Amino acid sequence: MTQPIRITIWNEYWHETNQPNIRAVYPDGIHAAIADGIASDDFEIRSATFYDPDFGLTDEVLASTDVLFWWGHVVHKEIPDELVTRIQKRILDGMGLVVLHSGHHSKLFGRMMGTSCNLSWREHEGGERERVWVVDPAHPIAKGLPESIVVPQSEMYGEPFDIPQPDHLVFVSWVEGGEVFRSGLLLSSRTRPDLLFQPGTRKLPDLFPAGNPPGARQCRTLVRNTA
Q1: Contact predicate 48/56, CB 8 Å
Q2: Which residue among 110, 125, 162, 166 is least packed, with the fewest CB closer than 10 Å?
Q3: For residue 160, cis peptide bond before it (omega within 30 degrees of 0)
Q4: Do 157 and 120 touch, CB atoms closer than 8 A?
Q5: What is the band of 191 on the pLDDT scale with cuts at 50, 70, 90?
Q6: Selection from 226, 14, 210, 216 nearest residue 102 by Cα
Q7: What is the pLDDT of residue 38?
Q8: Structural domain for 219, as ranges
Q9: CATH number, domain at 191?
Q10: Across 93-114, average pLDDT
């Protein structure tokens, strides 16, 4: 019997805990929305948050994780360097990493990239329409996806994005304001790739918007190809 892919979804959980308007969008937390969206018979999913003992990422948890999702926004500086070092070591030993949205400024992503990870950004009330183009349809991560996916409400991320040259660029986003962004890219730190995936703003349900099954399928393929 094939062993399931063991996924840990880390979410800082600050906004849902402290801001009622965000809790209204993600009443069970962003981590729960991700877990529901990627659920599959071949996945074993658990969640961890900033408020858990040891931030929910003990050595035992990391050792039994094949793919780590990371969502953070306002507590980046409060993550201990020691924890970042332990996660980095586990990544270099073979664990996959999927960094979502504002996780680009996390200590972990910055450590892995070795750059500022700065980008262009704009927040628009109600969000902006985004079209995610599949620019490398032959890549395994793009398997089964249409040529583009429309996200009705999104937060603008745009170029320039200060990261090393990616090994593979699979998705490029266009936002209605005219900006473009490398929204799905892989950067190999060892035999398996690390991945940055842009959607996932706290204020809008842009990870798995209603009526958008390709978005969920997109995230499941990310997991299977970073595990």
Answers
A1: yes
A2: 125
A3: yes
A4: yes
A5: very low
A6: 14
A7: 86
A8: 5-114+182-224
A9: 3.40.50.880
A10: 91
Q: Tell me, what's the pLDDT at 197?
A: 67
Confirm whether 59 is domain-assigned: yes
Alpha helices in the chain (DSSP H): 14-18, 20-25, 30-38, 59-63, 81-92, 107-113, 213-224
Q: Give the number of C-alpha atoms closer than 13 A to the C-alpha of residue 122, restricted to the C-beta side.
A: 18
Of residues 21 and 50, more confidence is placed in 50
pLDDT at 207: 54
The answer to the question of residue 153 being in a domain is no
Its pTM stands at 0.87
Q: Is residue 140 part of a domain?
A: no
**How many residues can be counted in the chain?**
227
Which amino acid type is present at position 29?
A: G
Number of structural domains in the chain: 1
Q: Is residue 163 part of a domain?
A: no
The answer for residues whose C-beta is within 8 angstroms of residue 154's C-beta and 6 or more apart is 127, 128, 129, 130, 173, 175, 199, 201, 204, 206
- Rounded to an integer, what distance in angstroms lies between the CA atom of residue 191 and that of residue 185? 16
Q: For 66-77, how does the pLDDT look when each residue is reduced to its tens digit (9 = 90+)?
A: 999 999 999 999
- How many Cβ atoms are within 10 Å of 15's Cβ, its own excluded? 19
Do the bridges between strand 96-100 and strand 120-122 make them parallel or antiparallel, or are there none, so unpaired? Answer: unpaired
